[in-house]
Amino acid sequence: xxxxxxxxxxxxxxxxxxxxxxxxxxxxxxxxxxxxxxxxxxxxxxxxxxxxxxxxxxxxxxxxxxxxxxxxxxxxxxxxxxxxxxxxxxxxxxxxxxxxxxxxxxxxxxxxxxxxxxxxxxxxxxxxxxxxxxxxxxxxxxxxxxxxxxxxxxxxxxxxxxxxxxxxxxxxxxxxxxxxxxxxxxxxxxxxxxxxxxxxxxxxxxxxxxxxxxxxxxxxxxxxxxxxxxxxxxxxxxxxxxxxxxxxxxxxxxxxxxxxxxxxxxxxxxxxxxxxxxx
Length: 279
Ligand SMILES: C[S@@+](CC[C@H](N)C(=O)[O-])C[C@H]1O[C@@H](n2cnc3c(N)ncnc32)[C@H](O)[C@@H]1O
Description:
Layout (H helix, E strand, L loop, with lengths): L2 H20 L8 H14 L5 H10 L4 H8 L10 H15 L5 E6 L5 H12 L6 E7 L2 H9 L1 E3 L3 H10 L10 E4 L2 E4 L7 E5 L11 E6 L8 H14 E9 L14 E5 L4 E4 L7
Parallel strand pairs: 1-2, 1-7, 2-6, 7-8
Antiparallel strand pairs: 3-5, 4-5, 8-10, 9-10
Helix pairs in contact: 1-3
Bound molecules: S-adenosylmethionine.
The site of S-adenosylmethionine (SAM) has 22 residues, from loops.
GO molecular function, one term: S-adenosylmethionine-dependent methyltransferase activity
Organism: Solimonas marina
Pfam families: CheR, CheR_N
């Protein structure tokens, strides 16, 4: 048996071990990128091969937060794809403004950059007090970073440019305090945010949402898991609620496209149609 085939078997056994021992099911993740992350994880733990890592992970529960963090790509930036935020601000905020209270769910929120981007724009639109923001991710470690809201200062220039392109009305640094070469977001932005671990591959409806953002998460999933996640969003949205995916993602092939109208194809922004709801 060649080395490549042996490694495929080791990866399959690693996935089984995570599922059977800890309930984390990565079997529906797109294979090529997942395989790279498993290989990197074995190196990260200093293991000679994946089988050796599987044995360690099976016997040492304390490794799990690190394993999940390394397998789940918590890469993000503030006001990522600024035109998406500009579109949300222009087209969706007026809809949110028609509710006395509304819920926004960020599924796969990584280190929180997307949540705080939304919080800033809501504050500038005078809508923050009416908002309840739910920030979820599979990774407990990513959520801890998100809660802290502390980021490396080197990002500021890029994020400040994104903020202006998204239609920000002030200067992004107004929302940060400098702390030992890092930037800490103003804590007033945290008031209406609930952070919670939620796994799109295993867990059920999380909240009743007026807007759901799940950006740059589905690209890591195989079609069956994409379908599961989108079905979960469909069930979670209020009538007429909005769903925003990543710009490289779409509802095509999820089996749910007919339940949604396209608000902006370029920005992967959809509205749940009345006949798309269950009631
Ligand atoms: C690339 S980041 C996207 C962050 C942000 N939404 C953005 O677009 O910038 C992908 C996030 O999805 C999370 N994720 C991966 N699998 C998940 C799952 N099964 N359930 C919930 N979150 C998941 C990862 O932990 C990671 O934080």
